[in-house]
Amino acid sequence: MDPIPRPHGAEIVPQEDAPARRSTYDQRVEPVVPWTLGPRARRWFDALLVLGLCALASAHFLSDEPLPAAVSLSQFIPLWWRRSHSALVFAVVAASSAAQVVVLGMTDPIVGQLAFPIAAYSVGRWGGRWSRPFSLVVTLCACVVAAWAWTSWTASADNRLDNMVAPALSCAGVAVSSWALGVAGGQRDRFVRSLVESAEQTRRMAERDVALAAQDERARIAREMHDVVAHGLSVMVVQADGARYAAAQDPGVAVPTLEAIADTGRASLAEMRRLLGLLRTEESGVRPQPRLDDVAHLVEEAKAAGMQVEATLPEEWPSVPDGVGLAAYRVVQEALTNVRKHAGPQAAATLRVTVDDAVRIQVTDDGRGAASGPGSGGHGLVGMRERVAVHDGAMSAGPAVGGGWTVSARIPL
Predict the structure, then answer these.
(1) Mean pLDDT, the chain, as a whole number?
(2) Model pLDDT, residue 360
(3) What predicted TM-score, i.e. pTM, was given to this entire model?
(4) Cβ contacts of residue 84 below 8 Å, gap of 6+?
(5) Any idea what the CATH number is for the domain that residue 370 is in?
(6) Which residues does the UniProt record annotate as the domain DUF7134 (predicted)?
(7) In this structure, are strands 358-365 and 10-11 parallel, antiparallel, or unpaired?
(8) Which helix (DSSP H) or strand (DSSP E) does residue 390 occupy?
(9) What gap in Å lies between CA 162 and CA 168, rounded to an integer?
C-alpha cells in the first residue's frame, strides 16, 4: 500500500528524488574497511623489522662471538617470509632454536631467540588450520627445553627441576601470548573480510535489483507502446481505406472521416507522449491511466472506424482497482485491434464485459479465425497474458466454434 494517496486513475512514478535515494543507499551499503597497513607498507615494515633484528645480531661480531651471531641471523632472516609462508618460517626458526642448544651448548640466551615469539605470532595469525595448534605444542616444548638449557649451569641436578619452573613459565608466557595475539588477529582479519564480502554482495544484489526493476519497466513501457501504436494505427488505416473508397461515391463522407483520423492520431500521440514522459527524469511521473469505464470509448472508436461491434457493458461501471481497470482496458483494446488486423474487412465482433467477483471479458469475431494466425506470434497476446497474470487472472485465446476467434479473460478483484 502506498504511503501517499494516489489520485484516481493516476500512476505514481517517483523520479525527482530517485538519485538522492540511490546515493543514500549506496552510502549505507558501502563497505567500511578498518585501518590497516597496505601491501607496500607491510613490505616496508617487514624489511625494517628484519634489518633491525639483524643489526642486533651483528653486535655478537663486535664482541668476537661469530657463532652466536650466525645462529641469530639464521633465526632472523626467515622472518622476511613470515606472512606468505608462516608455517615454514616457524619450522625453520624452531629448528634453528633447537640447533642452538647443540651448537652453542648450555649457555645464556642470545638475541636470536627474539625471533621465536615473532614466528609464533605469525603462524598464529597467518597459519593454516592445522599449523596453529601444532605450533602451540612446539612452542610449549621449546620453552621447556630452553629453561632446561638455561638452568644447566646454575643449578645442581637435585634442584634443577625447581629452578627451571620460573624460566619456563616466563618463556611460555611470552611465546604463548604472542601466539594467542596472532590467533586473535587472524580471527579479526577473517571477520573483517567476511563483513567486506557481505557488504559487497549486498551492493551487487542492490545493483541487480535496480537492473531488474529497470528491465521490468522497459518491458511494461514496450507493451504500452505496442498497445497504443497498434490500436491507433489500425483505426487510422481502416478509416483511411473507408474514406478512400467512399470519396469516389460521396466526397462529403471524406470530411468527417478525415476528422476522425485526425482525432485518433492526436489521441495516440498524446498517449505516446505520456509513455515517453515516464522516461524523462525532469518530469513528475504522475500521468492519468485508462480505467475500466474507458472501455466504452474503445467501442465508440471502433464503430467510428467502420467496425461492426456489438457490446454488452455494465449499465453502471463499478469501482475497481486502478491496476485491474488498466489491465481490462488493455485486453479489450488489444482484442479489438486483433479483430481489425486479422479477422478480415467484413468481420463483426461481439464484446461482453461483466463485473462480479472478477472482471470477465469476452471478445468474439466471426472472421477468418485460425487462418488469420493472430496467435502465431507478436507481442499482443503475450502482453495480454502478462497483464492478466499479474493480477492472478486467467486468459485464453483461440479459434471459436463455428469459425472466428475468441479472447476470454478473467481478472479477480
Answers:
(1) 75
(2) 92
(3) 0.44
(4) 126
(5) 3.30.565.10
(6) 44-183
(7) unpaired
(8) helix 380-390
(9) 11
